[in-house]
Amino acid sequence: xxxxxxxxxxxxxxxxxxxxxxxxxxxxxxxxxxxxxxxxxxxxxxxxxxxxxxxxxxxxxxxxxxxxxxxxxxxxxxxxxxxxxxxxxxxxxxxxxxxxxxxxxxxxxxxxxxxxxxxxxxxxxxxxxxxxxxxxxxxxxxxxxxxxxxxxxxxxxxxxxxxxxxxxxxxxxxxxxxxxxxxxxxxxxxxxxxxxxxxxxxxxxxxxxxxxxxxxxxxxxxxxxxxxxxxxxxxxxxxxxxxxxxxxxxxxxxxxxxxxxxxxxxxxxxxxxxxxxxxxxxxxxxxxxxxxxxxxxxxxxxxxxxxxxxxxxxxxxxxxxxxxxxxxxxxxxxxxxxxxxxxxxxxxxxxxxxxxxxxxxxxxxxxxxxxxxxxxxxxxxxxxxxxxxxxxxxxxxxxxxxxxxxxxxxxxxxxxxxxxxxxxxxxxxxxxxxxxxxxxxxxxxxxxxxxxxxxxxxxxxxxxxxxxxxxxxxxxxxxxxxxxxxxxxxxxxxxxxxxxxxxxxxxxxxxxxxxxxxxxxxxxxxxxxxxxxxx
Length: 535
Description:
Elements: H1 48-64, H2 68-75, H3 94-100, H4 108-127, H5 136-157, E1 159-162, E2 174-177, H6 178-195, H7 210-228, H8 234-249, E3 270-277, H9 279-283, H10 292-295, H11 306-309, E4 330-331, E5 362-365, E6 367-368, E7 386-387, E8 410-412, E9 423-429, H12 430-443, H13 449-458, H14 469-480, H15 486-492, H16 520-525
Antiparallel strand pairs: 1-2, 3-9, 4-5, 5-8, 6-7
Helix pairs in contact: 1-4, 1-5, 2-4, 4-5, 5-6, 5-7, 6-7, 7-8, 7-12, 8-12, 12-13, 12-14
């Protein structure tokens, strides 16, 4: 057998069990009869600053994508579905399966999410090895990123494979679950809070800060009872409240002007954003004929259910300002606005004097859509471009296939008028922390009505007389749509398995679907993993 090989190599990728093949030219090998395998000796990360930059950089694709984590967090809920329009968005049914809850163990987005976020926490573990020399702030980044990667895996799959970076790559990774996994994540976040720098409104909050770590810790504690299969713990809820108060103490708070929050620039709500292009959030829902001078037009896919749209206050048939719409529901402009040189905007080349893309509405786009000069838009077949509530095929039946170009209400939180691919996607936001505190109060037996109404009044919605669990879930949906949280919220409130339009009837009530399957390929590679029930 060959002598043990010692290699100093950065290993940022982890796929459950790692199989590596080495091409070695051997001319003078010492034979050790006791050796049975070749191993890789990890000697630490040689350039931590560059490694950390790369690790944060990898999150841009993981968060900015329309597939993978975003898809399994949002398309699996009542917020989004992607019907097949002719041959567009067919993709062998991969999008439809998420909305219908009939995914299989080899679903690409489920597998990719598993791989990507396991890579994240293993790379962070390499940084935290005693063989790597880190500053306090670098260790804070490493603890924060390891906790984030582990939490995404725990939340979606219920079990987390962990590997000691110094162990042989041929060893099967250990797997932690439940209390052990939660304790590890909490410990990492507490260390991150101690070592990360303060951020604050107006700072460049595109990396981990104390506020970001506190936010994630509050999120973990709010969901802890789900991971342990217990009732919510009063101590955990009290700590959620305290963590949010700490974030508020750093200057973060609620901001008026809902859609302005999602522009590039300073605001008091953004705790952590990724410098990744927001184009996927814009173009995957817009019709092909909308805002063509910015990016060639939309991709005409993502839509929302009418039942989700109806959670918002306002006249469902008159989606314009002044018709009783709450701000978050948005509106459809009947023409563009004059170009004033507002930050992030450009003048239209097709309609000089107007702001490019200003004919595209905010929030939820329904009914007739218009060109910048006020001309009603048509779809490619020449019929009026009217986004409709229902998903119907050519025979008029409710269906996810054979839809035309106009079915489905569209969602527009980021807007092309401020840049079709601006690199500024919000991941952690104070309004979410505000609602987490309100929910923790409610789960502790307190009254969350005042806190919820503070947000509703700011958003132009009528105050509620009281707040039940259902109203809390609804309010989170209204505030946080398209921000990665709908599946997590629905699981915590026991509604991820309820019925909604176009869900597979056989999936309704199946609580096994609260967790995704461990990818089939990983079950084969690592015998310490156990397939989740129902798969």
